[in-house]
Design brief:
Order of helices and strands: EEEHHHHHHEHHEH
Structural class: alpha/beta
Helix content: 40-55%
Strand content: 5-15%
Length: about 190
């Protein structure tokens, strides 16, 4: 019973109330959904890179960080990487940690991506909380975006607190591998 928000490579919110009703929001894949996920952050970082190249975005440290991580030196190489048939969603999501570094430097474009991601994650929680009448209690957060990016986590928690003052956020006490090992051990008993 409760609500879980997962924001890793993809994003989804899932909940179950005491009446046994289930609701989910998001999780429909990177081509049409997964906002607030590592993939969408990576895509936004790439977008900031090309927009900065064109002059549509003021100076940002994101571009240099993207070039450095990908080992590239031109916008043509970046475009080639993005549209290469062998590039997959995990390759794009692997850029997401750049966001933390850029935020630590106070980069405005990075801080805007954080705000966009946090709002997108709140958008996943609202329909689940409303349909299940679970506007208070605990929201479990997991996934690399929420657990490893303190900027996104802090922004999301502030928006959640604003919307649902009686809802608190919890994070896993152990990682997924520990949970899988515990489940296997329990089945052996």
């Amino acid at each position: 019973l409760g609500i879980i928000l997962i924001a890793g490579t993809g994003s989804i919110c899932y909940g179950k109330n005491e009446a046994g009703e289930i609701c989910r929001a998001g999780g429909y894949g990177y081509l049409i959904d997964d906002e607030g996920s590592g993939y969408s952050i990576g895509r936004d970082l790439l977008s900031a890179t090309v927009r900065a190249h064109d002059g549509r975005l003021s100076e940002t440290v994101i571009a240099k960080m993207v070039y450095d991580q990908l080992g590239m030196t031109s916008i043509q190489q970046i475009i080639g990487f993005v549209y290469d048939k062998t590039t997959n969603k995990k390759d794009i999501a692997a850029l997401a940690p750049i966001l933390t570094k850029a935020c630590e430097l106070g980069d405005e474009a990075a801080l805007a991506i954080v705000e966009k991601s946090a709002r997108s994650l709140l958008e996943l929680v609202v329909p689940v909380a409303e349909k299940l009448s679970m506007q208070e209690g605990s929201l479990a957060m997991t996934g690399s975006v929420l657990l490893k990016n303190s900027f996104v986590q802090t922004a999301f928690m502030a928006l959640l607190k604003e919307r649902y003052p009686a809802m608190t956020c919890i994070t896993p006490k152990r990682d997924a591998a520990s949970g899988a090992a515990q489940m296997a051990f329990n089945r052996m008993q």
